[in-house]
Amino acid sequence: MSARLNGKVAIVTGAAQGIGKAIASRLASEGAAVCAVDLHLDSLSATLAGIEDAGGKGIARACNVTNSDDVAQLFADVCEALGSPDILVNNAGIGTAPNDGFDLYQQRQAERNAQLARGEAPTVFADHIPDMQDDGWLSVVNVNLNGTFYCCREAVRCMIRQGSRGSIINISSTSAVSGEGGVHYCASKAAVLGLTRSLAMEVAPRSIRVNAICPGPTNTPIMANISDEWKQAMVAAIPLGRIGEPMEIANTALFLASDESSSFTGQTLMANLGTYLS
């Protein structure tokens, strides 16, 4: 086993599937003791199996990242079970929610594209925000932004108490800079980038680094909420001609978690196959 993260403790949220699951196993394969976190404990069994297959040490914890008390308890549990965290990966996120009008948005988008394909002047507009209810907006913002903030706050508190050099990695999205996607998703992921930069400046004197990753279209369950037509359009627009794989994002997270990225803080790595060039 390589030892780039030997002796380190890592927390990965949203670790039951997709990118989070891949990150948890990748960090474990490099020697980190990993706490895999998701909303439901029973959903983490495959992630723990992957950590064990990678020869690593892992525990699982259930946590609702939108609840600050839950997050505080999570970090207390990790400190007791594994020690103070050195690495936090804020991966928990959602793209849609009930009452967010996203289904109507996709329907209208498909109708408009069909009109354009027939050479007609479009009469259908792909509106989204008129049908977005307050709870639909808040559900996405609470997970993507507030959950990231709550976890960052607890991680910094732990790192200050321990006096440790730490690495916080926030998973944003190319949508944060391209504006492509639901307005609540784009807004919350853009806010994560602002949080990343501000926090990086604040905690740099303590040798705590904070960076972000913006994946492009990636082969994860969240893609199931996107229409086939939209997926095909995405792939056609990707310079490398394919969607990304979770392990590619995990490798980027490993770099930011390790000392190999010791000069990186407040940065955004665009792991997006060329869909957005910064």
Radius of gyration: 19 Å
Q: Into which percent range does the helicity of residues fall? A: 40-55%
Strand content: 5-15%
- The low-confidence runs, each spanning 5 or more residues with pLDDT under 50, are none
Structural class estimated from helices and strands:
alpha/beta
CATH architecture: 3-Layer(aba) Sandwich
The multimeric state of the shown protein is single chain
Number of strands: 7
Principal-axis shape: globular
Helix run count: 9
**Would you state the CATH class?**
Alpha Beta
What is the structure about, briefly put?
With 278 residues, the protein is an alpha/beta fold.
Task: Write a concise keyword list for the protein shown above.
278 residues, alpha/beta, Rossmann fold, seven-stranded parallel β-sheet, 7 strands, 12% strand, globular
